[in-house]
Amino acid sequence: MSNCDYEVKIIQKEDREEVRQFMREYFMKDEPICRSINLISKEKPVNLPLEEYLLQDYDNGISTMAVKNGKMIGLCINPILERDGEQEKVESDNKDFITIYNFLMHMNDHSDAFKHFPGVNKAITVSILTVDSKYRGMGIAKDLMDRAQIAGKERGCGFMVVECSSHFTALAVKRMGFDCIYTLPYKDYKVDGKIVYNTEPPHTQATVYVKKL
């Protein structure tokens, strides 16, 4: 535990709305690709399809939250992936959600993390890792990630994979001993010949990192 006094709890089903609100406040507004397409604004204060997609695994018994004085200050949602698992087919008339979903699928398909771990059939990943802005830099995200790796190994996962849209997230996981297996400069990701994400520096590329458990 860092010098910030908090406890880590496994997220329960009844925590859903608290998780949703925290995600809105500290994830949707801060992620570079979300900011670049103006995902959240006064005119569009929420994006329910994206929220529902990201919340799919919030109560899987692995995902955690950091709590201080009864208030959530950190969140880490950790889906389990299987080598032969089918990609979920998603349909929506929400353009922003589909834009992000297609990008995530592009990253997943082109990085192909399982090919780096022959014989491994299960992995743990991170769909959301975010901390209250007042408590960043105190080791909370690392604590949640360390716990996720332990939980993943206990569940039979051979490695952890993290898709990073943020430069700072990429730096953090690199410090945790992860190796980069895929890099996609945002200027090279185009749909119909147009750059999709005009992100602000230093967020110039998306990356995928892995670590053997």
Automatic annotation (TrEMBL):
This is aralkylamine N-acetyltransferase. PANTHER family: AT07410P-RELATED, N-ACETYLTRANSFERASE-RELATED. Residues 6-213 form the N-acetyltransferase domain. It is an enzyme of class 2 (transferase). The keyword Acyltransferase applies. The keyword Iron-sulfur does not apply. It catalyses: dopamine + hexadecanoyl-CoA = N-hexadecanoyl-dopamine + CoA + H(+); serotonin + (5Z,8Z,11Z,14Z)-eicosatetraenoyl-CoA = N-[(5Z,8Z,11Z,14Z)-eicosatetraenoyl]-serotonin + CoA + H(+); serotonin + (9Z)-octadecenoyl-CoA = N-(9Z-octadecenoyl)-serotonin + CoA + H(+); dopamine + (9Z)-octadecenoyl-CoA = N-(9Z-octadecanoyl)-dopamine + CoA + H(+). Keywords: Acyltransferase, Transferase.
